C-alpha cells in the first residue's frame, strides 16, 4: 500500500466521526433525538478505530491528533449538549448544564493534547468519548428517570472530564487480524445497540465510576511497593511500544532509501 494512502486512512475515519456529529445535531433539530443518540454511539466506534489504525499502519502524527480532537468536541461535546437542550429548551438549568459539558470537554481535549498523562497507560480525567456516550444514552432514559436527573448527569460528567481521576486508556488492545471478523463485529454491535440501550449506558457508566473507585478507594490503600511495581510495569509497556515504533520507522526509512536508489537514473 502506498504511503500517502496509508496516511489518510485514519483521517477518513476521523472525518466520518465528525460527519456523524453533524448528522446527530441535524437529527436533534429535526426532532429525531433517539436516532441522534445512536448516531453518536456509532461515532464512538469510528473514534476508537482511527487511532488504532494510525498505530497499526504506523502513520501517527500531530495532525491526526488535532483533527481527532476537533471531531470529538463536535460529536461527543456539542451534539450531546444540543440533545440535552432539546429535552427542555425553555429550562435555563438545561442550558447551563449543556454549556458546562461542552466547555469542560474542550478543556479536557486541550489538556490531553498539551500535557502528558499523570499515569502511564491512563487518561487524566474521563475521556470526552466516554462522556459523550454516557450523555447521549442517558437521554434514552428520559421517560424512565425524572427529568431533573439529566442536567445532574451532564454536570457530573463535566466535572469528571476536567478532573485528575485516572482512567485506563486500553490502547494496548489489538484489533482482530481478520478484517471480516472486524466488520461483522461492528455490524453486530450496532444492530444490538439499536435494540438494547443498556449495552452502552451501563458499561460506560461503570467505566466512569471505576475511575472514582480506583482513585478514592483502591489506589490510596495500596502499599507503596505495589504502586512502584505497577508504575514500573507500565513504564516497560510504554518502552516496548516506543521501541516497536522506532523499529518500524527504521524499516520504513530503509525501504524508502532502497526505493530512491533504484529510481536514480544510471550514470553514463
Characteristic terms for this protein:
mainly alpha, two-stranded antiparallel ribbon, elongated, single chain, 2 domains, 268 residues, Four Helix Bundle (Hemerythrin (Met), subunit A)
Overall CATH class of the largest domain: Mainly Alpha
N-to-C span:
33 Å
Mean pLDDT: 78
Largest sheet: 2 strands, antiparallel
- List the helices and strands in order: HHHHEHHEHHH
Tell me the strand order in the biggest sheet.
Answer: 1-2
Structural class: mainly alpha
- The level of helicity is over 70%
Q: What does this entry show, briefly?
A:
The chain is an all-alpha fold and 268 residues long.
In words, what does this structure look like?
The chain is 76% helix and 2% strand. It is mostly helical. It has two domains: 3-221, Up-down Bundle (Four Helix Bundle (Hemerythrin (Met), subunit A)), CATH 1.20.120.1760; 225-268. The protein has a two-stranded antiparallel ribbon. Helix 3 (62-87) runs parallel beside helix 5 (128-138).
Amino acid at each position: 500500500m502506498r504511503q500517502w494512502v496509508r496516511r489518510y486512512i485514519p483521517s477518513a475515519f476521523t472525518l466520518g466521526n465528525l460527519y456523524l456529529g453533524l448528522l446527530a445535531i441535524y437529527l436533534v433539530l429535526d426532532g429525531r433525538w433517539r436516532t441522534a443518540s445512536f448516531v453518536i454511539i456509532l461515532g464512538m466506534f469510528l473514534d476508537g478505530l482511527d487511532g488504532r489504525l494510525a498505530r497499526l499502519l504506523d502513520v501517527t502524527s500531530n495532525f491526526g491528533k488535532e483533527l481527532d480532537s476537533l471531531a470529538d468536541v463536535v460529536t461527543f461535546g456539542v451534539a450531546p449538549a444540543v440533545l440535552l437542550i432539546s429535552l427542555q429548551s425553555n429550562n435555563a438549568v438545561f442550558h447551563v448544564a449543556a454549556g458546562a459539558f461542552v466547555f469542560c470537554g474542550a478543556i479536557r481535549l486541550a489538556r490531553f493534547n498539551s500535557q502528558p498523562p499523570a499515569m502511564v497507560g491512563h487518561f487524566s480525567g474521563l475521556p470526552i468519548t466516554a462522556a459523550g456516550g454516557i450523555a447521549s444514552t442517558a437521554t434514552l432514559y428520559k421517560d424512565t428517570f425524572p427529568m431533573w436527573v439529566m442536567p445532574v448527569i451532564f454536570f457530573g460528567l463535566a466535572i469528571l472530564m476536567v478532573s485528575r481521576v485516572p482512567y485506563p486508556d486500553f490502547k494496548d488492545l489489538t484489533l482482530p487480524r481478520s478484517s471480516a471478523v472486524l466488520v461483522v463485529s461492528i455490524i453486530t454491535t450496532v444492530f444490538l445497540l439499536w435494540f438494547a440501550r443498556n449495552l452502552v449506558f451501563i458499561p460506560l457508566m461503570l467505566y466512569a465510576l471505576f475511575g472514582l473507585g480506583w482513585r478514592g478507594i483502591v489506589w490510596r490503600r495500596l502499599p507503596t511497593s505495589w504502586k512502584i511495581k505497577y508504575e514500573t510495569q507500565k513504564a516497560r509497556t510504554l518502552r516496548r511500544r516506543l521501541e516497536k515504533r522506532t523499529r518500524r520507522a527504521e524499516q520504513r526509512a530503509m525501504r524508502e532509501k532502497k526505493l530512491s536508489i533504484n529510481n536514480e537514473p544510471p550514470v553514463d
